[in-house]
């Protein structure tokens, strides 16, 4: 879970994560989610926060009104690992139920 | 509440808001809060989110593990207003009770 992904595995993972992209100049993946309003955006963040705490793996994220910009990387590994794929996958599931 | 603060009123307001600073190149105020851990940081964000929604005035903020960086400005006024001072004051009160 804490090894950096191979190029092949990363391509495969990103293909299954719509809207997620590589971050220029850094081994990380990112997506900006847009919701109906602040209520929906923060509701998404609250649900993700519980998952992140349970996984003991936390996003870098910012919120401006109804948008939430997320960057995921695994600090200990210096790049993207299966832990980031797991958190991104959970975010997709939660966003689908958050009026996103 | 939605008029930009005078220079005098802004100085007065910032003097009462420890750690808050002007943002270079923009009419806004900002502070980075540091908490004990992600639980405390997100607990702070959750409490602030409820206040922000009630005030109908929302922060620009980012969270990386136990830090929360906040920028406040009033979009409609193109700068800092009493609404920002009110939200910053609420954040100070909440942070004091969030293990910050």
From TrEMBL, chains A, B:
InterPro entries: PCD_sf, Pterin_deHydtase
Pfam families given in the database record: Pterin_4a
GO biological process: tetrahydrobiopterin biosynthetic process
Keyword Lyase: yes
The reaction(s) this protein catalyses: (4aS,6R)-4a-hydroxy-L-erythro-5,6,7,8-tetrahydrobiopterin = (6R)-L-erythro-6,7-dihydrobiopterin + H2O
Keywords carried by this UniProt record: Lyase
Enzyme nomenclature, EC number: 4.2.1.96
A GO term, aspect molecular function: 4-alpha-hydroxytetrahydrobiopterin dehydratase activity
Similarity-based family: Belongs to the pterin-4-alpha-carbinolamine dehydratase family.
Matches recorded under NCBIfam families: PRK00823.1-2, PRK00823.1-3, PRK00823.1-5
Protein name: Putative pterin-4-alpha-carbinolamine dehydratase
Gene name linked to the record: phhB
């Amino acid at each position: 879970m804490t090894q950096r992904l191979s190029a092949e595995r990363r391509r495969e993972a990103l293909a299954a994560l719509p809207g997620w992209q590589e971050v220029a100049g850094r081994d990380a993946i990112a997506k900006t989610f847009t919701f109906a309003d602040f209520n929906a955006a923060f509701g998404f963040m609250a649900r993700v926060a519980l998952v992140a705490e349970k996984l003991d793996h936390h996003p870098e994220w910012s919120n401006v009104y109804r948008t939430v910009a997320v960057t995921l990387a695994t600090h200990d590994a210096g790049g993207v690992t299966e832990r980031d794929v797991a958190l991104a996958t959970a975010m997709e599931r939660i966003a689908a139920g958050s009026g996103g």
